[in-house]
Amino acid sequence: MSDRNPNEFDPIFQAVNGQPAAVDIPEPSFESFSVDRRSDDERTELLPPPLQAPRHAPVENTRRSDDSLAPAVGVTTAVLDADRTPLAALDARNISAWFGDHQVLDRVSLTMPAGVITSLIGPSGCGKSTFLRILNRMHELIPSASLAGEVLLDGDDIYDARKRLVDARKSIGMVFQKPNPFPAMSIYDNVVSGLKLTGTRATRGERDELVETCLTKAGLWKEVRDRLRAPGGGLSGGQQQRLCIARSLAVKPRVLLMDEPCSALDPTSTRVIEETMLELVNDVTIVIVTHNMQQAQRVSTQCAFFLASHGTPGAIVEYGDTDAMFTEPIDGRTFDYVNGRFG
How much of the chain exceeds pLDDT 90, in percent? Predict the structure, then answer.
């Protein structure tokens, strides 16, 4: 998938480039995509045994404060509710994934607590990014893709046939590895472009307040407030990535997925993105894929280590408190990986 434009997977990109408003966006064809709803016992007969290893227990949120429930923006319900959307937990249960006949994930279960940064680590090819795409229904955009299992957002299965695709994408946003703002569109219009996707109407004053709020949360407002009508493509790489974060925040996601968001950035820009993440976690649950072990330690409260070896599909070897996994891992493979012995 590395040769594909990441914008192909961005619903905002699709919306502003010819697709109709959210209420008219067709659901994807399932002729080439399927969700296996058989019972665990039935699937067990078809699948090889998963990797079995001790796991740490999921951790409680240690960063959320009472102030995190304050309203985000004081605008009408046309753009943002008066009361901020409560933080959401994301729960993946027995996720298996295939590309054609090739299985890439084997019965992965992971709870991503509300208001917590969860990092996904592991060598290339172990299924981390595939797992991340499954969490907001981007896996089904890939020809021949299929999956089994459930993804629950506060207890509701986002793959339920009665659920609209656009609702899942609105609730669970994505920031990609390569910054992908609309280069010819202004900074201001980049931020509000998501309103078209969701069919949200807003007055000029409401849009102005939304732009300032989202850019402030993304740590970019002070740098661009005097040039909001300048093209988004004229920003530096780190600024473009923060603009993409602001664009995602404009539709009020409850979960924000980040696929190696700093891999193409310099150390200074990386530090700013990490500081932004630590501030955003009071507003949105974050799941990040990273190959940077130091970054995982700096920003995440919970960590999951993925591994695929000897031709087996990817699975979680160990998960739990990040500090515990890096200082006192239970599984020897975790110790070897976080200490740079392979990967």
Answer: 61
Provide the β-strand partners of residue 16: none
Q: In which domain, by residue range, is 296 found?
A: 49-74+87-182+253-338
User: pTM for the complete prediction?
Assistant: 0.77
Distance separating alpha carbons of residues 280 and 272, to the nearest angstrom: 12
Do residues 198 and 164 lie in contact, with contact meaning Cβ atoms separated by under 8 Å?
A: no
Cβ neighbours of residue 60 under 8 Å, at least 6 residues apart?
113
Contacts of 66 (CB under 8 A, 6+ apart): none
Q: Which two tokens stand for residue 322?
A: 């990040």
> pLDDT tens digits, residue range 81-93?
444 668 899 999 9
Which has more pLDDT, 110 or 52?
110
Token pair of 210, please?
């939304």
User: What is the CATH number for 64?
Assistant: 3.40.50.300
Q: What share of the chain is helix, strand, coil (3-state, %, to 5)?
A: 35, 20, 45
Contact between 197 and 11 under an 8 Å Cβ cutoff? The reply is: yes
Residue 193 lies in a domain: no
